[in-house]
Design goal:
2 copies of one chain form a homodimer. Chain A is α+β, with helices and mostly antiparallel strands and 306 residues long. The first copy, chain A, has 2 domains: 2-44 and 261-299, no CATH class; 47-254, Cyclophilin-like (Cyclophilin), CATH 2.40.100.10. Chain A has helices at residues 2-13, 23-26, 31-36, 71-82, 217-221, 267-277, and strands at 43-45, 51-56, 59-65, 90-94, 99-103, 130-131, 138-139, 149-153, 156-161, 166-169, 175-178, 192-195, 208-215, 240-241, 244-247, 260-262, 300-301. The first copy, chain A, is globular, with a radius of gyration of 21 Å. The two termini of chain A are 34 Å apart.
């Protein structure tokens, strides 16, 4: 069904208006026009219980957690956020075209500097993949070099292997992952990283990905880089202090940032993605006929006034 | 020949050491080890006559121009650099996960604010693609969704269509392009942009790409973002002043930054790319079996001491 719709959209997108009079009828809508016209039902409201606010001096970074992919890590991260674990810690790594990383800079593989709050588990399983059994997977028709198929599960960019019945979050721009040492099960969510460059998809299935930045990426992406090759700052004063990371549900309602996301199974999302895949307008001259998973925008908006 | 080598490398990369005693013999080399061991002949020296220095308060951004792809734009850019056109102008746009753009912020499609130096052409052809006839194209074996094939020409990331006999620069992180208005031949190289996010490959073949940042990307990627959606600053004082953009060959030799780049047709480059494609080490558990063109690092170094 979706494939048929995409083919129809494709044939519309590359056709030129038959005449100036017909232009208003036959001109394909832009992605923006499609999204602006999406019905209320195409939008989902961000769940405060699955949302982190990272408060920096520069502004608020808003993160949607992915419990469907990494339930144990997400539960641990929530426990740490409730206990104020990250408050006063820092972003201690910024590597250009790769990641920023944050947590306790004085922790190492053996010892921690700041104690973990009550309810924090000290050992978690690796959560690199999930079963796709019974899970809605909004597939893209596009080829992907890294995985047999790609699309969206729970609104997150996802790759999958249908033979194995497995899916995993992809390391697109803005994705949040749990840093680990060499052992697969050595992450507990205390050290986290966000992708700030070209998607390092070679990391897919190698770490437990736990969510995605949906607003405020510019506060992370513009942090001064640390020295090569890893981007760890030489001096503590170069780090960016984290004022707090709290669950939105723990923040007074008046201080929350309400947001909605376009559902990846909505017709508006499908049509907007197709419009981008074969964009032809006054500026774009050649339809690409393709879109990369990590180039698909995931629209976010403030809820419309009632 | 290359494919055969790649297959051999692949079988080495995924094999585990037969025993601890054999580990030193059979362990595949990392990309870093391969590059560190590359012979002098694997490196090429950056040509000062094809190199731009963009001087910012934060540091020097070094750009390699691509005359093989956009000869007319590159000639015009050299004329503008020689005449000091950009000196005192600004980076007036910074859009997260997309581009920074610079030039004359007070110019529009009809008028310019700062006069062009002598030798600057006011009209150039679109240089979106080049012929591959007689051109060495160092192909990657990897599938690419955007183009029939991908690899490197003149050391630049490139996509190609062998049926059409055409190739074009790809919009990878750090690539430099010539902004234009709606007409394909409306760019002259006075307004330039650099990719600072996930490769917007839908722009490939839609603009004249003219070069690549090879050092100092962090000075561009961390520039505060302008407001959405386009990232154009609301106030002139938010712009980043360009102290100067000069050709390296016009700068006194003592003030130049000598650099070498790993040749993309060298065995070291081929082997290092294969090591990344199927990286398995203490940290990486699963070989990707793939690399995206825009994930292939293009190593740069200071020339070794004689």
């Amino acid at each position: 069904m979706r494939l048929a719709l995409l083919v129809i959209a494709l044939s519309l997108a590359v056709v030129a208006p038959a005449s100036a009079q017909d232009a208003s009828k036959t001109k394909p809508r832009s992605a923006k026009e499609i999204i602006d016209a999406a019905p209320a039902s195409a939008w989902r409201t961000l769940d405060p219980a699955n949302t982190l606010y990272m408060e920096l001096d520069s502004g608020r970074v808003i993160i949607e957690l992915a419990p469907g992919f990494a339930p144990e890590h997400v539960a641990n991260i929530k426990a740490m956020a409730k206990g104020g674990f990250w408050d006063g810690l820092s972003i201690y790594r910024s590597q250009d075209n790769f990641v920023v990383q944050f947590g306790d800079p004085d922790a190492d593989e053996k010892t921690i500097a700041k104690p973990f709050p009550d309810g924090t588990k000290q050992q978690l399983p690796a959560e690199f993949t999930r079963s796709t059994n019974g899970v809605a997977f909004d597939l893209l028709p596009d080829v992907d070099g890294w995985a047999p198929n790609v699309g969206f599960i729970d609104g997150f960019p996802t790759a999958g292997d249908p033979k194995a019945g497995k899916a995993w979050l992809t390391h697109c721009y803005g994705m949040l992952g749990a840093g680990r040492s060499n052992e697969p099960d050595s992450s507990i969510g205390a050290e986290l990283y966000v992708v700030i460059g070209q998607a390092p998809r070679a990391l897919d299935r190698q770490l437990s990905s736990v969510g995605r930045v949906i607003k405020g990426m510019e506060f992370l992406s513009t942090i001064p880089r640390g020295p090569e090759p890893m981007g760890m700052y030489a001096k503590p004063e170069q780090r960016t202090t984290i004022k707090a990371i709290h669950l939105a549900s723990e923040v007074p309602e008046s201080e929350r940032t309400p947001l909605q996301l376009l559902r990846t199974d909505s017709q508006a999302f499908i049509d907007a993605t197709e419009a981008r895949r074969n964009r032809v307008d006054d500026f774009y001259k050649i339809p690409s006929g393709h879109i990369d998973l990590c180039n698909v925008p995931l629209p976010v908006r403030a809820p419309p006034a009632k």
